[in-house]
Write a structure and sequence with these properties.
By secondary structure, the chain is an all-alpha fold. It has one domain. Helix content is about 70%, strand content about 0%. It has 14 helices and two strands, in the order αββααααααααααααα. It has a two-stranded antiparallel ribbon. α3 runs antiparallel to α9.
Length: about 375
């Protein structure tokens, strides 16, 4: 595979630089225009000052410039990436408008995610057409089943990234781990195109992360979370499509953390708290980690203490993202092993969650911020 050459790092570095400079411009503009600001109030808000939610603009710019750099050296990468950007437009714009106005309902954003999913299936002919699980593949042979499952997977994962976006660096750091896992699968599958697109997306994300973690100078926002979620799931779908020897369950294991978080949150809201499944609450795993593992409950904390605790949450999320990504590369062609890893992660998540709720988390997991 002609993946490594002296031009390989130019596109991702271009994306990184463009993302860094765009954030700097946004921060300067927000001192005058006050656009897209998060007021820091609400059940899921854990920062201490008004902050821009327009990080998605920087990531969009970074990916676009990275693809421009790709076109000069890898023309097919540039063209395909440009079409993925077009497909992402409905869900990204919907999230961006929500960041600017706070007036786009979750239902509307879900339908926009469905629209982006439909473009992926119709234009790219890319979707969930096999799983290597007999009874699911039998269902997929029915008319429209593959399309419906593709819409569910794409829209579901896009929203899952938004769910884990609550603390400095948590979503962006996790996305970089996911992209590393997909890049690893692409490398094993001798797929230079997907490998390089992962690098471009990771470069743009890293440019944002430099400003976001640990100090939270700017937030990802719905637009950024949806855009990154869309890119990760599309690249994940490409891997088994372009490299049939890789199990379709390998990319699923790569992104298992936000998927389990989303499903468990729906269960908790519906059956434990008897709330609507889209009703926001402050009981996500990352929220409990913040309140019970890195911040001393019931004590006074300065703004600096809270910010330090906020940033530490991302480290837990990164580990929960990186370990499954590594296992996915290790067992990339063994569907049974991949399914076993997925089940073990789900059991770990539930046990970890319940231990924190019951104040029984192991002491070595605690990273208390000073009072």
């Amino acid at each position: 595979m002609q993946t490594f050459n002296h031009f390989l790092w130019i596109p991702p570095l271009t994306g990184l630089l463009a993302s860094v400079l765009t954030v700097a411009l946004l921060l300067w503009a927000n001192t005058h225009l006050q656009w897209g600001l998060d007021k820091g109030s609400g059940v899921q808000k854990f920062h201490t000052k008004t902050t821009s939610r327009l990080g998605g603009v920087a990531i969009f710019t970074g990916i676009l410039m990275g693809l421009w750099g790709s076109y000069a050296y890898f023309p097919k990468d540039g063209w395909l990436g440009a079409w993925v950007m077009v497909a992402s437009a409905p869900v990204f714009i919907g999230g961006l408008v929500e960041d600017l106005t706070h007036k786009v309902s979750p239902t509307s954003r879900l339908w926009l995610a469905v629209a982006s999913s439909a473009v992926v299936y119709a234009v790219f002919q890319l979707g969930v057409k096999r799983t290597d699980i007999f009874f699911i593949d039998t269902v997929l042979s029915l008319p429209f089943a593959a399309f419906l499952l593709t819409v569910l997977v794409v829209a579901g994962f896009v929203n899952a990234i938004n769910i884990i976006d609550g603390f400095h660096g948590l979503a962006a750091g996790s996305v970089i781990a996911f992209l590393a896992g997909i890049a690893g699968l692409a490398w094993i599958g001798n797929d230079g195109l997907v490998f390089r697109l992962c690098l471009v997306t990771a470069g743009a994300t890293m440019g944002f992360l430099i400003w976001n973690w640990p100090w939270g100078k700017i937030f990802l926002g719905d637009g950024g979370a949806y855009l990154l979620g869309f890119w990760v799931v599309v690249l994940g779908l490409m891997v088994p499509h372009r490299s049939p020897e890789i199990s379709p369950m390998a990319p699923v294991l790569v992104g298992i953390y936000p998927l389990v978080e989303t499903v468990y949150s729906m269960y908790r809201r519906k059956f434990v708290r008897t709330h609507p499944i889209n009703h926001p609450d402050a009981l996500h795993l990352h929220t409990l980690i913040y309140r019970r593992l890195v911040l001393r409950p019931g004590m006074h904390h300065s703004a600096g203490d809270k910010n330090a605790a906020n940033a530490k949450v991302a480290l837990y999320g990164f580990v929960m993202s990186a370990v499954p990504a590594g296992l996915a590369c290790l067992f990339m062609d063994n569907t049974n092993a991949l399914l076993t890893c997925m089940a073990l992660f789900a059991l770990f998540y539930i046990d970890f969650y319940r231990r924190i709720v019951r104040f029984r988390a192991p002491l070595w997991l605690m990273a208390k911020t000073r009072a």
